[in-house]
Amino acid sequence: MMAEQNPARVLQRRPFGSWLLGPADQSPTTLRVRAQILLTFFLIGANLTGAAVAFTLAVFVLPGPSSDRRLTHALIAAGYAAVALVIGTAWATKRCLRATRWVQEGRPASRRDQVATLRLPLQVTMIVAFFWLLASVFFTVVDLVIDPDSMLRSFVTTLDGGIVTCAATYLLVEFSLRPIMARALLDSAPPKRLLAAGLKARTIFFWAAGSAVPVAGLMLAAIVSLIEKDVSATRLAVIMLALGGVVLIFGFVLTVLSAKSVVVPVRSVRNALTVMGGGDLNVRIPVFDGTELGSLQAGFNQMAAGLRERERIRDLFGRYVGPEVVRDALTRDQLNGVGSLSGEERFVAVLFVDLVGSTGLAATRPPAEVVTLLNRFFAIVVDEVDRHGGLVNKFAGDAVLAVFGAPTELPDAAGNSLAAARSLAGRLAEELPEATAGIGVTAGVVVAGTVGDERRHEYTVIGDPVNEAARLTELAKSVPGRLIAAMSAVTEASPTEAAHWHPHGQTTLRGRPTPTPLAVPHPSPAASGHGQM
Q1: Is the entire prediction scored with pTM above 0.70?
Q2: Would you write out the chain's pLDDT as a tens digit for each of its 533 residues?
Q3: Are 519 and 490 in contact (CB under 8 A)?
Q4: 347 with 394: CB under 8 angstroms?
Q5: How many other C-beta atoms can be found within 10 angstroms of the C-beta atom of residue 461?
Q6: Which of 34, 339, 394, 411: CA 20 to 30 A from 129?
Q7: Contact, 245 vs 223, CB < 8 A?
Q8: What is the rounded CA–CA span in Å between residue 128 and residue 96?
Q9: Nearest Cα to Cα of residue 314 among 300, 302, 330
Q10: In which element (H, E) is residue 257 found?
């Protein structure tokens, strides 16, 4: 495909799903600082919340150690949490800075950079999981020394808290890194393989974190209550209520975060489709997901680029052959198959216009000046033909062939062509006084359609009216006003337009066996009117 001339714009209303992530065009320094602040805040917040909940459940809610041992557990837990947070945050930060070094360097991401960036959420989550797993082992060993009866409780609550925290960490890190991921995947094709946990694996993991783990906590409470025979009904009710509250709150939070991680990419595609549905194809969405959703986003961008390229080619094609011919060609291809060659008889009006003395102009003026003059001439002709519903079919040197009534039918093809000719004669005299042109108009039945080979087509009209219009143009160069029409065209025109013309005798045109009745416009000011459209 050809390279796009104008780069597509990114939708600027929350391109990454949240105002916290900033605009799509933020500087590399701003991008990196913003992502690092969010990462640090979310890492510390998620781990502190998980630690607080796990500690509260293990020490104060579930049947556990006596009051004189709770202070010991609290001090040990606080010390471990402080050390783990410092080391874990530093470790995760160093890993993120290394993987996103290309952002600060201001260079495009290589394929290796893309993989490293898109795997950051999983790698940071693994760092968090390591410290939580270490905490489970550590507190189990501590309880083995100071309270052997609490080993199972400490291990399971710490492990459960770690799983929930890891799930939240994955989602929050992925959220924080969306702008960087989008820059890593800028102008990239959809990944051939997933660069992050797929939707299926992600859904199962978050089901385990949001549902299975809390339910396991409830089952643990029941097991502990069976072992601890002195647990009262009131105590058991408090345990159930506390665990139920944790299940509802954290299950809801994880569900919302998981849903948003899926909805935001889909919503970005939906919003872009809405913009495209309004006729604006110059749109692109940032690709910030390494799963199937990222493939969906990248696929949309490729589709939009293809549509823009198709529209550009169609516009370029239309500039060469006319938009009506493009529409007709597309319709014929749909009905008859690609590459079909066909034509049909049509009643049309033909307008032919040719510059007078073009050979002398080329001999006495510089080529660049001649081209400028021709372009001014053609611009006036195209403007008037388009304004009256015609089609400029050919540019032949310094001449133009225009058709009215093909490929698009007109209710008054002859009247439109005569009105265009009168208006064109007036504009050429006013706007291009340094050159004169002869204008001939006629009407009749021609064969209009596509001719050529299956590999190379051209839309044209073939028939006697085309030759007659060319002969009339030669004759028009020698009459006042430089405009003449066949009387057959005036006869076929509407009364409103025909009133602007009067007979001008007849003549036998070169190559024709019979005389052709002629007509010229009235010399009155009314002759400059635009006629019927």
Answers
A1: no
A2: 344 444 566 655 677 878 888 887 888 888 888 988 999 999 998 888 888 777 776 666 665 555 556 667 777 878 888 899 899 999 999 999 899 998 888 888 888 888 888 889 889 999 999 999 898 888 888 877 777 766 666 777 787 778 878 888 888 898 898 888 888 887 665 455 555 566 777 777 777 766 776 677 677 667 766 766 666 677 667 767 777 777 777 778 777 877 888 888 888 888 888 888 888 888 888 887 777 787 788 888 888 888 888 777 767 655 655 566 566 655 655 445 444 446 788 899 999 999 887 767 777 788 888 888 899 999 999 999 999 999 888 888 889 999 999 888 899 999 999 999 999 999 999 999 888 899 999 999 999 877 777 666 777 889 999 999 999 999 998 888 899 999 999 999 999 999 999 999 999 888 788 899 999 998 755 434 434 43
A3: yes
A4: no
A5: 23
A6: 34
A7: no
A8: 14
A9: 330
A10: helix 233-277
String of DSSP letters for 203-225? HHHHHIIIIIHHHHHHHHHHHHH
> How far, in Å, CA of 209 to CA of 215, rounded?
10
The answer to whether the beta carbons of residues 223 and 160 sit under 8 Å apart is no
Count the residues in the chain: 533
Q: Alpha-carbon torsion 379, 384, 390, 396, what sign?
A: negative
H-helix segments, 57-150: 67-99, 101-105, 111-118, 120-146
